[in-house]
Amino acid sequence: SRLRPLMQLREQKEVQVDDLLDDLIRDQDFQGIKEFIMPFANSKDQIKQQKFKQWCNKIASSLSTTVSEINRDLERAVSEEMCHSITNQVKVLEHAKKELSSRLVKLPGGLNIGKEVQSAKTKIREILEALIEAFNVHYRNMNFEGMGISHHSVILLSSQMEVHLTPLNKRTVKDLREKFDQAVISVSGFIHRFVQSAFQEDGRLLQIFPSLKRASESVNPELPKLSNTYETSQKELTEKINEAFNVCNDIASQKNCYYQPIEMLTALDRQLKRGLKNYLVTPGLSFDCEAKLKEWREEQRKIDREMDFDSNNVEEKLKKWASLMDGLDPKSEGYFGGMSRFFARMKSGTTYETKRDELHIKTVDRCNQGKKALKESDYPMLQECIHILDLTDHHIGKHIPVASTESKFLKKHALNTFLGICKKAQGILESTNKSEFETIFPDYRDSVLYLPWMMVTGEAKKEFKLTNQFLHDALVKDISEINEFLENFDFAKLKTKVQSTRIFGGFLADHCLLLRERVKTSDHLEGDQWLDAIFKLCSEFFSQCRSLNHIKYFAILEIPSSSSQNTIKKAYKSLAKRYHPDKTGEGDGTMFRKIKEAHDFLLENVDFSRENVDQPFDSLLRGVRTKLRERAKALLEEQQYKNVETLLFRLDDLKMLDNLANPHLKHTDTIDEIKKIIKGHVEKVRIDVDSNWSSHNYLALNENITDLKSMETHFKAYPEIFSSSWNCGIVQNVET
User: Fold this and answer.
1) pLDDT > 90? residue 465
2) 10 Å Cβ neighbour count for 106?
C-alpha cells in the first residue's frame, strides 16, 4: 500500500513521456529524442522493448512520408515553393540522421536516412544539370523564350539549394549566367552585323526576334528582362535600317549610281518579306521599300542605256565617253579647261571617280561575259566582247586600264582553247572513231570564222592547216581501205568501212566544204590547199544528193548543200530577220540582198528530187559482181586455186552488201555466177584430160592431172563444183 502512490506517479510519468514522444515524432523534432528511447532499447523488459519498436515504427513512418514528399516535389516544375519545400524536407532528414543514434539509422521497413538524404541531393543535381542542358539547347538555337525560362529555373534552384551542389555545379551555373547575359547583349551585335552586311545575311535575326516576341508576350513573370530586350531591339533594328537607307539614298542621289543601293535594298526587301517586317516598331520604316526599288531600277536603266556598248554604236558611244571622261578628269584640263569639268559634272550629274568606277564595272562585266562565252563556246559573243574591250582600251584606256589586261587575258585563253581543239581533232582523226570529230567541229569552225585576231598568229595558222591535212588524210585513208577490203574479198570489213566513211565523208561534204567557202570569202583568212583537196574528194565520192556546184549559195545561207527546200526557206527567214536593214542599220542592205539572191537561186536551180539517188560508193558496190567475175577468171587462169578457195569461202559474206547499195544487190546471183565460172573451169580441165588421154598427148595430160589434183585439194569442200567422182575413171587408169 505504501508503494501504490509511487506506482501511480510512475505510470503518469510514462504516459507523459509517451505523449511527449508522439508530439516530437509528429513535429519531426528529433532533438534529444534518443535520450528518451535508448533506455527502452537496452531494457530487458519486454513491455519496454515493445514500446521501443512502436516508437521506431512511428519515426520510420514519419520519415517515409517526408521522403515521399521530397520525391513528389522533385517531379514538379521548378518554383520557389517547390525549392522551399524540398529544402525543408531535406533538413528534416539531415536533422533526423544527426539526432538518432547509429542503431536507429536503419529503421523498420528498410528506411535508410543517410541513403535517402544522398538520393535527394543527387536528384537535385540531376534536375539542375537537365535544366542547364535545356538552356544550352535554347542558347544554340537562340531561343530566348526557352533560355529565359531555363535561366530562371537554374538560378532559383541553385540559390535555394546551394548547399547541396558540388563545386562543378556552381561553376556551371556561373557560366550559364554569363552566357545568358552575353546572349542578351549579342542581339544588338546581330542587328549591327545584319546592317553592315547590306542586309545580305539575316544573322539569325529571324530566329531571335520571334523568340523575343514570344517572351515579351508571355504571362510568365520570370521574363520581364527579355520583354525589355525585345522592345529595345525592335527600336534599334528600325532605327538602323532607316539610317542605312538614308545614307544609301544620299549616295545614290549624289553620285547617280544605283548598282549597290539596288542590291542592298533588294536584299532588305527579301528579308522583310521573309518576316522581318513583323518585328519593327510602329509606324515602321521611313520609306516604302518596293516603291523605292522600282524608282531606283528605272534610274539605273537610264544609266545602263548610256553605258550599253552594243555592236552597232559602240565606237560612237565610246568617243562620247572619252570626251566626258577627259573633261571630268581632275588631272587633265580637258577640252575647255576647268570650266569643262564643271559643265560636264552639271550635265551628267556625276563625278569623274563615279563614272570611272561604273565604266570599270562595265568593262569587267564585259570580260566576264567573254569568259562565259568562251566556256559555252559562244564565239560570236566572245569576239564581240574582245572587240569592245579593244575599242575601250583604244578610246578610254587611260581611264580604264583594265580593258587592255582583260582583252589580252581573253585572247590568250581563246588561243589556247583553239590549239587544244586542234590537238584533240588530230588525235580523233588518227583514231578509228572519227565520229567524235563531229562534236568538236562547231568549236573548230567558229574559232576560225569569228576570231579574226587569232588567225593572224603563226600558231593558229599552223594548227589550222595541219588539222585540215589530217582531215584530208583521214578521208583518203578510209577510201583506200574500202578498195583494199574489196580487193581482199573482206566483205564484212568492207560493209563497216563503207557505212562509217559515208557518215564521215558526208559530214565533211556538208560542213567542211561550207567552211572552205566561208574561208574563201573571209577578209582575215587565206585559202587552204587541204580544204581544196577535201573539196575534190567530196566532189568525186560524196556529190550524191548534194549540189556542190552551188556551194557558195548554201554557204551564204549557212546550211549544208544537201538541204531540202524547207531548210532553205527556214534559213532564209532566220537570216533575213537578223540582217534586215531596219535592224542592222545598214543603209544599202548588202548582206540582206545576198541572202535573198542565194534563196531565190537555190529554189530555182537545185533539183530536190531525191528518190532512187545513189549513195556514196554505190557504183563501187554494184561493180562487185563484175570485179569478182574478172578476178575469179584471172585467178583460175593463173592457177591460183588457194586464192580461189579464199574467194569461195568469203562469198557468203556478200549478203552483207545486199542492202548497202541502191538498188539492192542480189548476192545469190553473184555467188551462183562465180561458182559457175569455177565449175566451168573444172569441167574444161576434165575435158582436156579426156582429150589428151585419147590423143596420147602425155605431156599435156600430166599438166592436166596436176592441175586437177590441185583443184581437188582446194575445191573438194564444194561438191557442186568439184564432185568426188572426179577421183575415178581416167585419172585412176593413168595412175595404174
Assistant:
1) yes
2) 16
